[in-house]
Amino acid sequence: MSSEPQRLIGDAATMGVALDEQQAARLLRLLDELAIWNRSYSLTAITAREAMISAHLLDSLAAQPDLCGQLIADVGTGAGFPGLPLAVLEPQRSFTLIDSVAKKIRFVTHAVRVLELSNVTALQVRVESLSPDTAFDTVIARAYATLPDLLHGVQGLCGPATRVVALKGRYPQDELAELPRGWRLAQARALHIPRLGAERHSLSFVQQPA
Fold first, then answer.
1. Closest CA to 81 of 141, 35, 147
2. What is the C-alpha to C-alpha distance for residues 27 and 130, in angstroms, rounded to an integer?
3. Rounded distance, CA 168 to CA 189, Å?
4. Which of 70, 117, 156, 197 is the 20 to 30 A CA-CA neighbour of 134?
5. Is residue 210 predicted with pLDDT exceeding 80?
6. Whole-prediction pTM value?
């Protein structure tokens, strides 16, 4: 095993996330594919390899403790983060990755095929237009919108027991003061991402009983 997979496994372990060698290899293959596609489609502004590992892979994996249930939706997934890394880590869960931008969902679909992920569905659609028959157990979003806009936008994906997880930078105190009626903050965690050099927080929301 080369030093890059070893380092990824070690960095994940410092966050309490257990990766095996095969998972680490698949995650790094994801970055290989992203770098190739990015030259033509500008999917991410982060292009340095070390920065991609921290900002895309480790930042995504840090959300593992916040997942609950079997059905996970990643809204505004972009090039597949955090959904694709979490799907590699959690093969027993089903992930639906949602974005309205065609080129991003084309890449996600390509990555799903290359990584042989049988637990991922990619949807090109505006999340506000979705109202599935079965509510998701967890809805997760990374840098998607303000908290009020996020909670309004994903309402159609949620049932009474759905947890909505927002991955943010600085602690969004102002946004928390404007939560839509019926939602409350259930948990907040400061995330420590190796070599990221930026504040990161995970905030989990649940609906209050009427």
1. 141
2. 29
3. 10
4. 117
5. no
6. 0.96
Provide the token pair at 125.
């659609």
Which of 8-16's residues contact partners 24+ apart within 8 Å by CB, and which partners?
A: 8/53, 8/57, 8/58, 11/53, 11/54, 11/58, 11/194, 11/195, 12/58, 12/61, 14/192, 14/194, 15/58, 15/61, 15/62, 15/191, 15/192, 15/193, 15/194, 16/65
Q: Domain containing 166 — which CATH number? A: 3.40.50.150
CA dist 105 and 101 (Å) reads 7
Average pLDDT (186-203) is 96
Q: In whole angstroms, give the CA distance from residue 11 to residue 153.
A: 34
Our count of domains for the chain comes to: 1
Name the residue range of residue 175's domain: 3-207
Helical (H) or strand (E) element with 202 = strand 200-207
Name the DSSP class of 41.
H
Q: Which two tokens stand for residue 48?
A: 């340095």
Average pLDDT, the chain: 96
Count of other CB atoms within 10 angstroms of residue 176: 15
Please give the average per-residue pLDDT across 154-170, as a whole number: 97
Amino acid at 138: T
